[in-house]
Amino acid sequence: MARIAIIGAGMAGLSALQLLAAQGHEVTVFDKSRGSGGRMATKKVGDASWDMGAQFIRAHSAAFTAQLQQWQHYGWVEEWNMTPWIADAKGLHPSPDTVLRYVGMPRMTGLSRSLLEPAAAFIASTRIVSASRGASTGQWSLSCDDGKTFGPFDGLLINTPPQQAIPLLSAAPQLAAQCEQVDMLPCWTLLLTLPEAMNCAADAVFVKQGPVSWIARNSSKPGRDKKQAWVIQASHEWSRQQIDAPRELVQQELLSAFFAALQQPQQQPDTQWLHRWLYAIPANSLTLGALSDIGQQLVVCGDWCHSPSLEGAWLSGQQAARTLLTTLPNTAEEPL
Ligand SMILES: Cc1cc2nc3c(=O)[nH]c(=O)nc-3n(C[C@H](O)[C@H](O)[C@H](O)COP(=O)(O)OP(=O)(O)OC[C@H]3O[C@@H](n4cnc5c(N)ncnc54)[C@H](O)[C@@H]3O)c2cc1C
After folding, report:
1. In the chain, what are the domain boundaries?
2. Band of residue 228 on the pLDDT scale cut at 50, 70, 90
3. 142, 160, 304, 316: which to mutate for ligand 1, most atoms within 8 A of CB?
4. Which ligand 1 atom is at minimum distance from the Cα of 39?
5. Average pLDDT over residues 295-317
6. How far apart are CA 79 and CA 274, in angstroms?
7. Most CB atoms closer than 10 Å: which of 110, 199, 262, 283?
8. Which residues contact ligand 1 via a Cβ below 6 A?
9. Fold for domain 62-108+183-282?
10. What is the pLDDT of residues 116-136, one digit of tens each?
């Protein structure tokens, strides 16, 4: 049995955790946030809650399709049965498709919590600032921002956005250089509840013009509170242009665009929360699947190593874990 550290409890790290723990390894997961899930985040303000990052999960590959079916069987995800709408120059109109969309239950972070179960320990609210490998021991130790150290670990898996991985890769400058090639796009996100329920048939809207690109009625997802709660995401292009704009201005523009897209009269929300995702999705994923330095028992994963989605993150985590398994002492990769 090896001791392994995972930095980052996003979908990729949690995907890797399943394989590593299933092989009997002792895995400790670190995250700088209070909970797990990363960009699969849920935000709670008072009684209201919203899926603040990833909105739904869909599968293209056979492997992830099978994984989603298993999670559905466990009750960790459910299908979000909705008809997408489009808001464009022609107005607001339904645009039915046959895509199967799933959501974590009873919120997106419900899925990440279930996936965290095989961890030997989850060390939250802990930002790892450096990772070093003893030249003689060949083992990793980690330091966090309050000076505490953790280790030793036989293997290290880094699952952070590329910009946050670079400072952790001083032992592997060739991997840090690959991280530098990835451009992550921002996304301003506005969450709100309204005092008066809107009479609007659309639960999810792809918006093709103006600052907003996506609107979802969070309360239309299975397992969510039935009080109308809305998620409004700005386009990446607009978010980048407005990256340092005053928050009040961003909030006002997104609010106006939201009512305009849904063709509804404006009303003052009773709860609002504005979040700026600096690293929302990769503009250019590396498509390698995962980065590795086999000699140092070091792997790096995330959507930006594969493709910009939860599926891409999951596949990247699987690849990283398989690579790490081949490097660990007394561990032969078995067919999984
Ligand atoms: C607004 C938005 C909407 C999206 N919509 C969808 C969607 O509908 N469907 C879809 O499939 N995908 C969507 N995505 C993309 C999807 O969320 C990501 O592809 C996926 O969650 C990435 O997972 P990951 O494991 O690669 O990284 P992350 O989820 O970013 O996980 C990285 C983790 O590392 C932690 N971390 C970072 N640095 C440190 C450190 N130094 N020490 C400790 N911990 C650290 C972070 O806190 C985080 O938890 C969306 C993303 C955003 C932001």
Report:
1. 3-56+109-182+286-327, 62-108+183-282
2. confident
3. 160
4. 29
5. 98
6. 27
7. 262
8. 7-13, 30-33, 38-40, 53-57, 127-128, 159-161, 164, 187, 189, 233, 277, 280-281, 302-303, 308-310, 312-313
9. Polyamine Oxidase; Chain A, domain 2 (3.90.660)
10. 999 999 999 999 999 999 999
Q: Which of 195, 191, 189, 190 is nearest to 270 (CA)?
A: 195
Residue 163 Cα to ligand 1 midpoint, Å, equals: 13
Q: Which region, left, alpha or beta, applies to residue 201 given φ > 0 means left and ψ of -120 to 50 means alpha?
A: alpha
Q: Are 157 and 299 in contact (CB under 8 A)?
A: yes
First to last CA, the chain: 18
Asked whether this chain's domains 3-56+109-182+286-327 and 62-108+183-282 adopt the same fold, the reply is: no
pLDDT tens for each residue of 247-267: 999 999 999 999 999 999 999
Q: Please choose, from the candidates 160, 108, 129, 127, the residue with its C-alpha nearest in 3D space to the C-alpha of residue 305.
A: 160
- Phi-psi category of residue 38: left, alpha or beta, with phi > 0 → left and psi -120 to 50 → alpha: left
CATH number of 3-56+109-182+286-327: 3.50.50.60
Q: Which atom of ligand 1 is nearest to the CA of 304?
A: 26
ipTM: 0.99
Out of 51, 310, 314, mutate this one to test ligand 1's pocket (max ligand atoms within 8 Å of CB): namely: 310
Cα(10) to ligand 1 centroid in Å equals 6
Cα of 257 vs centre of ligand 1, distance in Å, is 26
pLDDT at 203: 96
For ligand 1, the distance from its centroid to the CA atom of residue 39, given in whole angstroms, is 3
pLDDT, tens digit, 9 for 90 and up, residues 139-192: 999 999 999 999 999 999 999 999 999 999 999 999 999 999 999 999 999 999
